[in-house]
Amino acid sequence: MDRFVYLTFDGLSRGAVYAAFALALVLIWRAARIVNFAQGAMAVAAVYVAYSVTDATGSYWLGFVAAIVFGLLLGVAVEKTVMRFVDHSSPLNGVVVALGLVLIVQGVLGILFGNEYRPIETPFRRDAFEVGGIALLSRYDVFVFAAVGAVVVALTLLFTRTAVGLRMRAAAFAPDVSRLLGVPVGGMLTLGWALAAAVGSLAGMLVVPTELGLHPTAMDVVFVSAFTAAVVGGLDSPIGAVTGGLVVGLLLSYVSGYLGATVAPMAVLFLLVAVLLGRPGGLFSHSKARLA
Amino acid sequence: MTDLREKSVAPVVPEKVGRKRRIPPAVAILLGAALILILTYTLPPFRNYQLATVGAYFTVTAGLTVLTGLNGQLSLGHGALMATGAYTFALTQNRWLSMPLSVLAAIVVTTLAGVVIGLAAARLRGPYLAGLTLAVAVVVPSVTSTFDTTFNSDMGLSIALDPPPGTIPMERWQAWLCWAGALVTAFLLATLTRGRFGRDIRAVRDDETAARLAGVHVARTQVLAFVVSAACAGLAGALFAVLAQSVSPGAFPLTLSLFLVMAIVIGGLGRLVGALLGALLLVLLPALAQTAGERSGSQHLEGNLALVIFGVVLVVVMLAAPGGLASIRFTLRRK
Amino acid sequence: MTGAGALLEVDGLTAGYGAAPVLHDVRLSVPSGAIIAVLGANGAGKTTLLRTLSGLLRAARGSVVFDGEDLRGVKVEHLVRRGIAHVPEGRGVVTELTVDENLRLGGLWRRDRLDAARALDEVYDLFPALAQRRASAGHQLSGGERQMLALGRALIGRPRLLLLDEPSLGLAPRITAQIMALLRDLRERTGLTVLLVEQNVRSALSIADEGVVLSLGRVVTRNNAAELRDDADLRHAYLGF
């Protein structure tokens, strides 16, 4: 029972990170109908920036801010220089270009930083509080919940309460109509990429210290988990992405805890297959499944 | 959706035009075999080894070309399928010491894996299929750690290969084996795609609904395309095992799957010649990058430079061809 | 009819998709405060004309001058600031957004927030049906409600020129009549200029001052509405009734 409680909290903490990362995928999918397969690589790049800044200044928080800002800028750059010019007549084109970006980012990171795992520090301790003899969660877990929670709340407010959010949603759903109504659709798209990349960077900052360490391919497995989370929730649904993230986090935690860590990736694969074959639109989507 | 953009109508070009000028597959294959034979006797051992690698890559890119170029399914999981073939080959070979049997086992097992993934893939499109196969590519190597008594985890397995017959040097023997596999694969694929199957998969790629109305069994065609390409990947995996004389999860990273996609995109989708070109690039570019890296004296440059070059080429090709994949396919056909 | 006083002046307009033009050398002039109906059979190029006017489709040749300014260099996004509202075919309601969000979207570009809010209230007064469904999503609305929403959203920008594409499409005759009456009323109250594309010739000519008949992308005739109504040969040849 103690173990179950611990694994649940651990799963929710992991899930929060997947939720943030899945949210980033959903943001871009809704805005551009592209699954950003380069999201993981871009996030790793941001974490390397944080690593360098922290290394130079000694401050975790300066590095943290640098990562988020770098994420924003990278998102803008990727959209303005590459993604904007992708031909959308086949949904494969966006995927292939994103894969090209993965190679570029991973290659550049390898050239700049080398291909060894680097340990990366956390701003808070990772040993769990004990309540009544049961290990619950660590300070770091609390930090993760707070950070992801803040992002979710901020994005919700942005999209439901502000004019920019309304413009972004309209531009995503109906680009031509939006342009006729004076919405700068291209700018909204760039903004969407910037926000998504920043959220992805945050997720990277949160997850990399809890895994093997910093490496150009550090986010490959995380990407698969987050993609699964996004598919579980439905690529169109931000609420679904958050829920899906928590579901995947719990699944990973229980499977690792009871069956062994090496089985966990396969559990994610099975979940992904099951959802794709059973409800390709996601468990939370109200609209008809979009296949293309 | 309230997007007002009207569907652009692609002009229809009769396929027959391009087809008349092609050399019959059998002739091309025989010419290829003769060329390989000459090359293996003239090239130094290391070049022979590279030549063999091109053959092994060609085996899998040819299959992928059929899947993605002709059928429109994008798989990022073929690196994992190659791993399946390689491990099957290694386990069979180490137990029974019979190369034909091991190659056959590699193809059969990978084909079965292809059936499973293909059945799922036939129901998925675009990014969903890419995501699923990506997951396969990322997750499958971890299987070696889960069942480490069989697969020996990250260390992998070394393979007890029969020595080459007579006094043939190992590298020449490897080149012959790889190219035998590659050319047989290419011949079978060329024959297959010229027949009814080829017509069906093209029809499914271009317009599923129209194909269905014309009586093409869409799902069956897609599964079949996936299975055929999986069989090719299985054989290629076995060939890579022969080349390395060992297998390990590190030999089949996600990057391998991405490289394969790159090879067929750059080579030109839907043509076996393109697959050959792609396979050639897969060997040549890293070799060039390696040399450049050694010259510069930077350890970090080795390997990573190839990644960057591949990535840049991939992005540039995709953006420069205005219609993306479709237009590459299109202009090639028009020639 | 061309000349001074025209709010929109189109000359030599040629446009289309890909290599083959849909519109050929179209010449058109819309006087300020007029309701002009663009008529023609399916495929005559009516929708293409509107899409080219608003810049959604790039013209191959020709000029579009609105209030003395050539619109070819103007981005689609900036059109609404010039006073042009284009209500596209199929109503263009963003079905994922609510009624209220759709309407607010129509006024987001306006600097005068106060007047945008006032315009919103006016639209709700004009269409009480919409006021009752503020929080409903676009996809929950009936065809008539969607048309009202699209029209209302356009009005929030207080346009000078309204480009209206097939407002009667799929609507019951009673609702079509209401919308036509509303357009006439708006013109009289606010001096709105309307370029109305319609297949429903009778409805369109019931409120239009003039009709322009397109056939295969060319203007075949233009005349005042009453005469077009009575021209049996023309009706048979181009309009199909």
Helix and strand layout, with pairings?
The complex is a heterotrimer of chains A (292), B (335) and C (241).
Chain A: H1 2-32, H2 39-57, H3 60-81, H4 91-113, E1 128-131, E2 134-138, H5 139-161, H6 163-173, H7 175-180, H8 185-207, H9 220-233, H10 238-259, H11 264-278
Antiparallel strand pairs in A: 1-2
Chain B: H1 16-19, H2 25-42, H3 45-70, H4 78-96, H5 99-121, H6 126-146, H7 148-151, E1 157-158, H8 170-194, H9 196-206, H10 208-213, H11 218-244, E2 246-247, H12 254-267, H13 272-296, H14 301-320, H15 325-334
Antiparallel strand pairs in B: 1-2
Helix pairs in contact in B: 2-8, 3-8, 3-11, 3-12, 3-13, 4-5, 4-6, 4-11, 5-11, 8-11, 9-11, 12-13, 12-14, 13-14
Chain C: E1 6-17, E2 20-31, E3 35-39, H1 46-53, E4 59-66, E5 69-70, H2 76-82, E6 84-87, H3 99-105, H4 113-126, H5 128-132, H6 143-156, E7 161-165, H7 173-190, E8 193-198, H8 201-207, E9 210-215, E10 218-224, H9 225-230, H10 232-239
Parallel strand pairs in C: 3-8, 3-9, 6-7, 7-8
Antiparallel strand pairs in C: 1-2, 1-4, 4-5, 9-10
Protein name (chain C): ABC transporter ATP-binding protein
Organism (chain C): Actinoplanes palleronii
Keywords (chain C): Amino-acid transport, ATP-binding, Nucleotide-binding, Transport
What do these coordinates show?
Chain C: InterPro entries: AAA+_ATPase, ABC_transporter-like_ATP-bd, ABC_transporter-like_CS, BCAA_Transport_ATP-bd_LivF, P-loop_NTPase. Chain C: Belongs to the ABC transporter superfamily. Chain C: This is ABC transporter ATP-binding protein. Chain C: One of its GO terms (molecular function) is ATP binding. The complex is a heterotrimer of chains A (292), B (335) and C (241). Chain A has 292 residues and is mainly alpha-helical. Helices cover 72% and strands 3% of the residues of chain A. Chain A has a two-stranded antiparallel sheet with strand order 1-2. In chain A, helix 1 crosses helix 9 and helix 3 runs antiparallel to helix 8. Chain B has a domain of 230 residues. Chain B has a two-stranded antiparallel ribbon with strand order 1-2. Chain B has 15 helices and two strands. The radius of gyration of chain B is 20 Å and the shape is globular. In chain B, helix 13 crosses helix 14. In chain C, 39% of the residues lie in helices and 28% in strands. In chain C, the strands form two sheets. Chain C has a six-stranded mixed beta sheet with strand order 6-7-8-3-9-10, sandwiched between helices. In chain C, strands 2-1-4-5 form a four-stranded antiparallel beta sheet, covered by helices on one side. Chain C starts with 5 loop residues before the first strand and ends with a helix. Chains in contact: A-B, A-C, B-C. Chains A and B meet through helix 4, helix 7, helix 9 and helix 11 of A and helix 6, helix 12, helix 14 and helix 15 of B.
